[in-house]
Amino acid sequence: MNNSSKVKLVVLELGPDYYTQIRDRLIAKGIECELVKLDSFCLLYAHTRNEVSRLREILRKEDDEVVVFLPFTTELFLEEPDLTIMFSGYKSGYNPERVKIIPYVWQPPQPSMPELQELKWTKKPDLSVGFLGRSHDNRKIVKLAGYLPDYFKQQILKGRHLKYLYKSRYKKISNLLAWMPCLARMEAVRKLETTSLKTDIVKHTYTASAEEHKNYQNHMLRNSYILCPRGYENFSFRFYETLAYGRVPVLIDTDTVLPPNVNWDELCVRVPYEKMNDLENIIRNDYETKTEREFLERQEKAIKVMKELKQMSWLEDIVEEIAKAANYKSNSDLLKVLSSPHR
């Protein structure tokens, strides 16, 4: 090992194992790296004030230590780590010097993706908008959030509720707070149901069975647009899956931060939450103004982008930044390196 600072990776072990790749790549660069797994810390979102306080203690760094936090989908934007690697973020409070937004590129294990020729259109498809999954319209706290004045909805959808979630003494209260942002999904699905568009809406609870995976795959194949609203975190697994299938994601933009270095607006239809009433017009306008050639080219580009993202070159960029930070001793130098843009 060289005389660089030690890197401590603190991981909420709830999802795909990309953190081992980070550790192994850092070690290959001669950097000492400790992996701290917190698989019993919390289940996604229902954490209490005491649990967050214990986590903060773990995240506090010692001298000559770089702390990197990987909370999977749990929205824990804390001050202690030098760098947090997240799937979601909020534009109004986003600090790219301290938070890196990464794509979700891990597909469900079954069934395997269809062959490329099955995915690709040979002509401009019919306009059909799909949604398959939980709409949360039967969850009481989500329904209650739907009755709030617009100002309070906007505050929730910009993550302002998180500071109260971090301070909650009781899991039941933090659980309720965490589900409130699902109001955006409930409202988006309801709005889609009222349009004159051809729609394919299947509401159900996801159990990850082989049959459900197959139904999801067929749903993707028979629709040209897929509604992709957020859940309790400010991103959508469905957004990346839709692109992988070469379909057009309809992103309900709730102050959303997407990963860098991709022109996402070339690949998706973005509907700002405050323009939800224009959902039908925005989708229809996109469809009607795209020529057949433009439609097919967008599909080609979406499939290509997801193929490239799955190669995870973006992970190496992040590893390089962490490695550079580990070679600096002072905190001021550390922050200077972490603020450098992706190459």
Give structural attributes.
343 residues; alpha/beta; Rossmann fold; 2 domains; five-stranded parallel sheet
Short description:
This protein is α/β, with parallel strands linked by helices and 343 residues long. 41% of the residues lie in helices and 14% in strands.
How would you explain this protein's 3D organization?
By secondary structure, the chain is α/β, with parallel strands linked by helices. It has two domains: 6-103 and 312-338, 3-Layer(aba) Sandwich (Rossmann fold); 116-310, Rossmann fold. Helix content is 41%, strand content 14%. The protein has 14 helices and ten strands. It has helices at 19-28, 49-59, 116-119, 140-146, 150-157, 162-167, 171-179, 183-193, 210-222, 237-244, 279-289, 292-310, 313-326, 331-338; strands at residues 6-11, 33-37, 65-70, 83-86, 99-101, 129-133, 199-203, 225-228, 248-253, 269-272. A five-stranded parallel β-sheet has the order 2-1-3-4-5, covered by helices on one side. Strands 7-6-8-9-10 form a five-stranded parallel β-sheet, with helices on both faces. It starts with 5 loop residues before the first strand and ends in a 5-residue tail after the last helix.
